[in-house]
Amino acid sequence: xxxxEVFEKVKGLFVEDLGIEESKVTMDAKLEEDLEIxxxxxxxxxxxxxDEFEIEIDDEELADVTTVGQAVNLLHSKI
Amino acid sequence: MKTAxxxxxxxxxxxxxxxxxxxxxxxxxxxxxSEDKANDVAKDxxxxxxxxxxxxxxxxxxxxxxxxxxxxxxxYTSVDVLINNAGVTKDNILPRMKKDEWLEVIQTNLTGSFYxxxxxxxxxxKNKWGRIIFISSVVGISGNQGQVNYAASKAGLIGLAKSIxxxxxxxxxxxxxxxxxxxETDMTSFLDNQNKENIIEQLSIKRIGKPEDISNVVxxxxxxxxxxxxxxxxxxxxxxxx
Lengths: 79, 242
Description:
The complex is a heterodimer of chains A (79) and B (242). Chain A contains four helices and no strands. Chain A has helices at residues 3-18, 39-53, 59-62, 68-78. Chain B has 242 residues and is of the alpha/beta class. Chain B has one domain (3-236): Rossmann fold, CATH 3.40.50.720. Chain B contains eight helices and seven strands; from the N terminus they run βαβαβαβαβααβααβ. In chain B, helix 2 (35-47) links the parallel strand 2 and strand 3. In chain B, helix 4 packs parallel to helix 6. The chains are: A mainly alpha (79), B alpha/beta (242). Chains A and B meet through helix 2 of A and helix 4 of B.
């Protein structure tokens, strides 16, 4: 899967599961500051990713993820 | 219609809760051994115009819990209300208590409720709505001779419930504890009349409790009207813990 395909799927999850405005979801967007996702919201996104892509994400891998782009790259590396 | 899953729903307090919730929810009656009794509870609910089903679950086994939830999700989409009621006792005074007696009670009563709550919470987070009720005991608040394991497990539920309430409040999920006192069930059937007289003497309300005393409170905590109550322990004990 190409990076932009992963991005489109990620965007879909943000918009559908968390009700975030589609235009705000860019590769540079910061999860907490720009998208106003709280820590529980990040957990929800992770669980949705795990279901959607059938992967497991460790807590350690998440520690460095603060932007949409970093999340997309992490997922891309695991698929 | 929302779905309520009651563990240990075939007997005693769990049965009363299942029947009461049958007025407002599809009720899944969880049982470990008493299949016939669980079926009778489901029939009771259905004959009163409600909707109910049964499922076998060993809450002390995470795989069994996972299977039960997967099956409920398949048939009823979600679990909106979880009643952590199933529990066991293995009484002994501390110097005589065997390690297995301790471990079995903690595994079922406390760890089992962790398994069910963790599994349910993922569904509730998706729905942004949920109710979790833990059936603890007055013994978890006050302690009791011969019940270090049971009392510790029931006190543990309070910490579990309060922490969930803090983690999940932003998702409209409430988590509360009901702490029954002496209630007329199989679990207290060993009490003879003299024991009962002695217990009643300690109570403000001069009678042993009925399972319905508990199910009425649980039902309220599952309703929309209780949405501002979370992380609380509600003793229903005739004044015993006062």
